[in-house]
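User: I'm curious whether this sequence folds into something compact or stays loose and floppy. Could you predict its structure so I can see for myself?
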Amino acid sequence: MANQVSSRREFLRDTVLATGLAAAVPGVLSAASSGRLHVACNQYPWGTFYAREKKDFNTLLDSGLAEVKASGNDGFEPGVGGLQQIEQMTPLLKKHGLEMRSLYVNSTLHEAAQVDKSIEEVLAAAAKAKAFGTRIIVTNPSPIRWGGPENKTDEQLQVQAAALDKLGARLKQMGLTLAYHNHDMELRNAAREFHHMMIGTDPANMTLCLDAHWIYRGSGNSQVALFDVVKLYGPRITELHLRQSQNGVWTEAFGPGDIDYPRLADGLLKIGVKPLLVLEQAVEAGSPNTMNAVEAFKKSTEYTRQIFGGFAT
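Assistant: Here's the prediction. I'll summarize afterward.
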C-alpha cells in the first residue's frame, strides 16, 4: 500500500530530525559464541508500535533500545539519514548490548544529476557504521514521489541500476556488502523496476535484502511470485526482512499466517543460503492491538528462532 511506504519514509525523515553473496558477508550468520541464532530487528516497526501508543521512538531512543534488548533481539538495524544519527545511535547500541550488523539507508539514484551526491552520502554513512561492526548496507532507491502513482522511465531504471552497481562496487572495496531492498511499488508493471535492478547489476556488487512481505503484497498477495523471486535470485539473498500478515493485514507478532515461512527457510537452506535475519513486524491500520512492542517482539523472536533454527552455525 502506497500510504504505508510513505509513512516509512516519513518515519525515517523524523528520525533524522530527532537526532558479494551470503558467503561473502563474514559474521552475519550466527549470534555469539553461544551458537544461538542471531536475530535483529529494524527500527521502522518499533516506530509503528510506539506511534499507536502516542509515543515517539526516536525521542525515547535510550529506553526504546533497552526494550529492544528486553525483547530478546541480538541486533538492531537503524534506518538513518546522516552521520549525526549514527554517532548518536552507536553508543546507545553498545550500552544495551545490541549489534549493528546492517544499516538501512535511503538513496536517490534514478536521476543522473543526483547519483554522485547520493552515492557519496551512502558511502559516508557506511564508513561510519563499519567502525561499529556493520557489514551490510541496505538501500531502497527512492521513488519519483513517495506514495505517488508515478513510475520511473526506462532511462531512469537504467541510470538507477548502473548507480547501484557503482555503489556496490565502492562498498565492496570497503569490505562491505550492498543489499537492495524494495517496497510494493517496485512490483508494479510486471515488476520491471525490481527485476531490472537485479538483472542490471553484477551479483558481485549487489545482493538482495529480501523483504518477503513487500514482494507478496506488491504481487497481489502472491506466494507464487515470492517463491519465483527466491528461485530466480536466491543465491544473492544476504539479508531477510521478516513480516507476516493474516488475510493481507499485518499481524502484531511474527508467526503463522499468509506467507509460508517454514517453506522459505527450508528453501534457502537447500541452496546453502543463510541470510542475516531482521524482523520488520510492523503494525498498520487494521492490525490487532493486543500487546505492546516488547511482548510482540518476544513472540516474534521466539518464532524466528524456531523456524530458522537451521541457520545457526
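Summary: Residues 2 and 66 are 31 Å apart (CA to CA). The longest strand covers residues 102-107.
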